[in-house]
Design goal:
The chain has twelve helices and seven strands. The chain is of the alpha/beta class and 328 residues long. The protein has a single domain, classed as 3-Layer(aba) Sandwich (Rossmann fold). Bound molecules: thiamine diphosphate (TPP) and magnesium ion. The site of magnesium ion has 6 residues, from strand 4.
Length: 328
Amino acid sequence: MLKHDELGLSNDNVLEMYRLMVLARRIDERMWLLNRAGKIPFVVSCQGQEAQQVAAAFALDRSKDYTAPYYRDVGVVLALGMTAKELMLQAFAKAEDPNSAGRQMPGHFGSQKLRILSGSSPVTTQVPHAVGIGLACKMNQDSSIAYVTLGEGSTNQGDFHEGANFAAVHKLPVIIMVENNQYAISVPLNRQVACEKISDRAIGYGMPGVTVDGNNPLVVYQAVKEAADRARSGNGPSLIETISYRLTPHSSDDNERTYRSSEEVEQAKEKDGLIVFKQYLIENNVLTEDLDAEIEKQVKEEIDQATDYAETAPYPSPESLYHGVYYE
Ligand SMILES: Cc1ncc(C[n+]2csc(CCOP(=O)(O)OP(=O)(O)O)c2C)c(N)n1
Ligand SMILES: [Mg+2]
């Protein structure tokens, strides 16, 4: 099995990756509680996808690259520097939410400071947006690259084809990462596509395509790092497919019992990237059960504080309704 030091990652690096994965998972779990308690309107989960998300963000140059994450990417935005408090502010739709000042649905990330493009609700629109950023980077001879994610179901949208094709034709510095979690709401993978792998689509665009285990953050890190090096050296875009499983219903408004069995979900939990990585870190003497308990304690404190703050923070004023909508 691939080891973190072979990838140039220190013990501190992988511990920080693990802490962020735990933070993402616990924020998500808290959001479900808040939703069921009637305090926040909607949750769309990262659960089961945190490992690949954090690992991918770590393989970027987080001081200068641009990202267009999709709604499940809590792990990505945390790794880029968004805080638990900021995520809670968006979940409660409060004025201080840096993503959209409480205007967008939860999960629509955006931050000028962190170079995160604002997300749109129609799935896959972020692909041509990221490709446009890639074009700008190339035209400006900027060594930044654009990283975009989407679900596997979303690769059936025209935007994916148009974005991927344009990026490859013009050799743009773009990484397209497809987080294949086996479902598009209620539609299982075998009803979404007839090809064996989503990454097989890459050949049609003339770019490299790989499929990796999304539950193993080290192989995801390696794949994204290679793609980032390729993009930065002028050799164009890459397609990466990460395989994992969506451990929650599609959203807080979905009833998964109508289309999949609890046995199937329980089985997938055994391969959960968070558990797999914890085991790896323990076996490689980076993490102990005591240290893990300490991480969990700190994460809980951070989320408690974030929740209290966001819950009592003010809503946007009605007068601010048109801010950021029309030219001022
Ligand atoms: C253009 C468009 N069509 C339909 C929807 C409704 N919708 C939201 S998420 C989703 C499923 C997307 O599945 P996938 O791309 O696999 O991502 P996942 O949610 O599984 O991470 C759909 C159909 C939408 N938001 N935009
Ligand atoms: Mg999916």
